[in-house]
Amino acid sequence: MARQSSFGRSLDDLQAMAVFARVVEEGSFTAAARSLDTTTSSVSKRVARLEERLDVRLLERTTRSLAPTEAGQVFFEHCAHILRDVDEAELAVTQLGGAPRGTLRVTCLSALGEEHLGPLLGAFSAEYPALRLDVDLNDRRVSLIEDGYDVGLRGVELSGPSVDSSLIARRLATVRGVLCGAPSYLARRGVPQTLDDLIGHDCLHYTPVPLHKEWSFSTPEGPRSIAVTPRMAINSTVALRGAAIAGCGLIRTSHLAVSVAIRDGALVPLLETFAPIQFGLFAVYPAGKQALPKVRAFVDFLARELSPRLEPAQG
To answer: 0.85 cut: is pTM over it?
Structure first.
């Protein structure tokens, strides 16, 4: 029977992991020692003992540089995750009933963040001055738990799969879908008058959403799907919107992603009698973070300040 490792079960192991993680983050023993208010030799010895304990080289050292090995990078990512959990555990206990503080890590769709969330962040920071914000605008679907985020803002097609059951979800708004195109494209290719007209048009597709080679619409007779072949597929809502504004083709998306472009005349809504499927905008967060004041404060703020702003954007 293999011997079970007891590494990671002592305070000394946790301290060693913290020292190693700081060395990787700072890029040198000297910088890590300065950050930790200790000596360079102490940091070096701590890492050497850690490598001996694990029986693996964690760092590649030269006279001019220091970098994690492949094993060291894997170990660093686990250390960073564990240390974040330790911080969260402390905050969950010490902050109960207290004012939000620490760092709040948020991931958000780029279009939503740039046009709707960004203008509100100053007001949130002013309301909670002890809280530091780390906001990642990215259309990539991340794992909140594995990547260490506190809150994610996600748009979910209401007729599609539900939000990950491992997360707590609070719906902030229901956003209608829209089909639109640029005036330059419509002048060149014509304005579609019926759903069947879409078959001959250039269509632009947002790749994180499964296409299944059709777009779905609501009609008086019920739901209807139209087969489309996308001329262009892009994984960024901002880039997709930009391509549509440039006249590359028609775009089917949530109204909040293109509300400003529609207001300014850069995009024109089409076939409004046949509404595309609706999207739900959700704030999602791991169950373990539900009790954190910083998470509760941010989600409540979004419900109070962001949700009402999205309704006029659809009108």
So the answer is: no
